[in-house]
Design brief:
EC number: 6.3.2.3
Number of helices: 9
Family: Belongs to the prokaryotic GSH synthase family.
Number of domains: 3
Structural class: alpha+beta
Oligomer: single chain
Cofactor: Mn(2+); Mg(2+)
InterPro entries: ATP-grasp (IPR011761), ATP_grasp_subdomain_1 (IPR013815), Glut_synth_pro (IPR006284), GSHS_ATP-bd (IPR004218), GSHS_N (IPR004215), PreATP-grasp_dom_sf (IPR016185)
CATH class of the largest domain: Alpha Beta
Radius of gyration: 20 Å
GO molecular function, one term: ATP binding
């Protein structure tokens, strides 16, 4: 099976070819004989019900500094494509949301991965709230008094932007920390969105586990250990990746959420687990494929393409 694949992503020249999961998916697509068409979110257009993108045929290879070749600039009708990979990074802002509305006009005739309506309805830090029995104590609000009450109850808490990513603007507020009000002021300047507060989980010192689910099934994982003096485990901010295996509790979490992910057309999902708690369900542009393959040899990009091809057959 040869598929025509459009990739909606961030600028290809700036990606880290040794870490980027979109790059891994593109390499695997080429290995299978699929053709690739690359475009930026800003080059997507909807006119009179017709969805187009201005971009380039692209080929990729694992060569630092010379990892892609672009064809001529052209305009494509996305209904002529078999698959669109929705892979630009958050922030999950109105620009991002608008692309999901536009791509709904071609899905499922053209298979969009992940399903654009489900992506729009499932921001990482909100989808997890549908599973309160799996998550740590969590509050989402712009009400400062409610945040103060939550802090008074749980004492040691994490504050983070509701639609952020990569560990940006994440604060740990300890019981004796005098920066609570300053953190709230920072968030209020960033925008009008509510803040998410969670009870601090001391197990984060042992790592924040990223588990990859493909069509609802857990197929790989990596543990991310925070750097000394850092509350965040994201690899963007110094988290150290290490190999890991799933615990019984983590399998229980995956079994609880997997059927719903599959039902919603969320083929490629990365969840975050600290200790016994599910903290995020990442559906916009999950990462971790290359790190997992380096540790245990599992080619998750191949598993994702197996799932996509099964849906296109």
């Amino acid at each position: 099976m040869s598929l025509a694949v459009a990739v909606q992503m961030d600028p290809i020249q700036s990606i880290d070819i040794n870490a980027d999961s979109t790059f891994a998916l593109m390499l695997e697509a080429e290995r299978r004989g699929h053709s690739l068409f690359y475009y930026l979110p800003r080059d997507l257009a909807l006119r009179d019900g017709r969805v187009t993108a201005r971009g380039h045929e692209v080929t990729v290879r694992r060569m630092a500094g010379d990892h892609f070749r672009l064809g001529a600039l052209e305009l494509r009708d996305l209904t002529t494509m078999d698959v669109v990979l929705l892979r630009q990074d958050p922030p999950f802002d109105m620009a991002y949301i608008t692309t999901t509305h536009i791509l709904e006009h071609v899905h499922p005739k053209t298979l969009v991965v992940n399903d654009p309506q489900s992506v729009r309805n499932a921001p990482e830090k909100l989808l997890v709230t549908h599973y309160p029995e799996l998550a740590p104590p969590t509050l989402i609000t712009a009400d400062v008094q409610a945040l103060r009450d939550f802090r008074a109850e749980h004492r040691d808490i994490i504050l983070k932007p509701l639609y952020g990513n990569g560990g940006a603007a994440v604060f740990r507020i300890r019981p004796d920390d005098e920066n609570f009000n300053s953190a709230i002021e920072v968030f209020s300047r960033l925008g009008r969105e509510p803040i998410i507060a969670q009870r601090y989980l001391s197990d984060v010192r042992k790592g924040d586990k990223r588990i990859i689910l493909v069509d609802g099934e857990p197929l790989g994982a990596i543990n991310r250990v925070p750097a000394e003096g850092e509350a965040r485990s994201n690899m963007h901010v110094g988290g150290r990746p290490e190999p890991t295996a799933l615990t019984a509790r983590e399998r229980e979490i995956c079994e609880a959420i997997g059927p719903e992910l599959r039902k919603q057309g969320l083929i490629f999902v990365g969840i975050d687990v600290i200790g016994d708690y599910l903290t995020e369900i990442n559906v916009t542009s999950p990462t971790g494929l290359q790190e997992i393959e380096r540790f245990d040899g599992t080619n998750l990009a191949a598993a994702i393409w197996d799932a996509i091809e099964a849906k296109r057959s």
